[in-house]
Design a protein that fits this description.
Length: about 200
């Protein structure tokens, strides 16, 4: 059994924490790692397992990552969490990509399972302060935000509040598609950043 070194542990936790406040909870014979109630990994016996939501379960199995098994009242239970292999530890770029995928698909699964947000503040990346600013420019409902779109909302916010951050634009886009701004599809992110550069000249 390999030991999860402090250096590896620090790398994983720092990468996960970029999505928000990291919390832990003892369950399934180990410790789950969560961001905003979204569970995306488990540590157990000095090993680290990533959640295999959606197509990731097939991907992780194809990468020879073993499923997490814990004993419940003497019976083995297999969960959709997959052990980080030694080859992954040695490829930090690929490992970071897998962590990003686990967070992205775990968030998608979480959003599908819970009641759809009725207020703007409950969407990913947004909060009560930005909801109030959007209300002031005539965006009062989640559906209105989706219909108007990230670019138009950004321009309205920039005009009224002099907000010029590209992160704001990505946050609005992420809220509309239902994901954290850091895991927006690369094509969409590139298109938005190019547009932001054009309107910022």
């Amino acid at each position: 059994m390999s030991i999860l070194s402090e250096q590896r542990k620090a790398h994983l936790l720092s990468h996960i924490a970029k999505y928000g406040e990291l919390t832990t909870k003892s369950q399934f014979g180990g410790v789950s790692l969560m961001i905003d109630e979204i569970m995306l990994a488990i540590t157990s016996d000095n090993q680290f397992y990533l959640k295999g939501s959606g197509f990731l379960e097939t991907l992780y199995k194809a990468t020879k990552m073993k499923a997490y098994i814990y004993s419940k009242k003497g019976s083995p239970i297999t969960l959709r969490y997959y052990l980080i292999t030694e080859s992954l530890w040695n490829d930090s770029k690929k490992l970071n990509h897998f962590i990003d995928l686990s967070f992205h698909y775990s968030m998608q699964e979480f959003l599908k399972q819970r009641k759809q947000p009725s207020r703007i503040k409950d969407l990913p990346n947004l909060g009560i302060l930005l909801e109030k600013k959007l209300n002031q420019i005539g965006i009062n409902k989640v559906e209105e935000l989706r219909v108007v779109g990230a670019k138009a909302c950004y321009l309205k916010l920039r005009q009224r509040y002099d907000l010029k951050s590209s992160e704001l634009l990505l946050s609005l886009a992420g809220a509309i598609v239902g994901c954290h701004r850091s895991v927006l599809p690369n094509q969409l992110k590139t298109e938005l950043l190019d547009w932001h550069n054009e309107v910022s000249v």
